[in-house]
Write a structure and sequence with these properties.
Blueprint: H1 2-23, H2 30-76, H3 86-94, H4 101-122, H5 134-151, H6 157-161
Helix pairs in contact: 1-2, 1-5, 2-3, 2-4, 4-5
């Protein structure tokens, strides 16, 4: 069952990435499905108490970080919506069940850096003009993490840090 949920989640993430690259938007029904699949993968091993602590901590961190960025841009006289889409924030919230708090902090930080680097490589000429398909980049980064963490029993130095349990 876990492998099936992993495959469904990975396929949905791949479709979301393709849509985000093509249209710079993702269908809204993807977010609750991604969240539900994350719940299905993590709740059986963690139970309700850890589940709610995990979700609450990760969501609080996401909202706090976005709030700080919004205040910064407001002070600069710029609109946050022009730089960070609401779909990107909802995507970050949708994947909260997949990570423990520490791993979510790592993923949140490293995924932003990786997305910026990847966007710089793919859109060298129009780097500052082209909008960033952040949810698409996050989806691509999340697929191998989901497949490695939930479908294998490999304990590698790299995957040990990224385990979702």
């Amino acid at each position: 069952m876990t492998l099936l949920l992993c495959l469904i989640l990975s396929l949905l993430l791949l479709i979301a990435a393709i849509e985000d690259w093509k249209f710079r938007a993702i269908r809204t029904w993807y977010f609750p499905v991604i969240f539900a699949l994350g719940v299905g993968l993590t709740w059986p091993t963690n139970g309700w108490v850890d589940f709610f602590l995990r979700i609450g901590g990760n969501m609080a961190y996401s909202l706090a970080m976005i709030g700080i960025v919004a205040l910064y841009f407001r002070a600069k006289g710029k609109a946050l919506k022009d730089l960070f889409g609401i779909g990107d924030l909802i995507f970050y919230l949708a994947i909260t069940p997949l990570f423990s708090f520490v791993n979510y902090l790592l993923f949140f930080s490293l995924s932003l850096v990786f997305s910026l680097l990847l966007h710089g490589i793919l859109f060298r000429k129009n780097f500052l003009k082209e909008s960033v398909p952040l949810a698409g980049y996050l989806s691509i980064q999340l697929i191998p993490l989901v497949l490695l963490s939930f479908s294998t029993d490999l304990i590698l130095p790299l995957t040990q840090y990224w385990t979702f349990y």
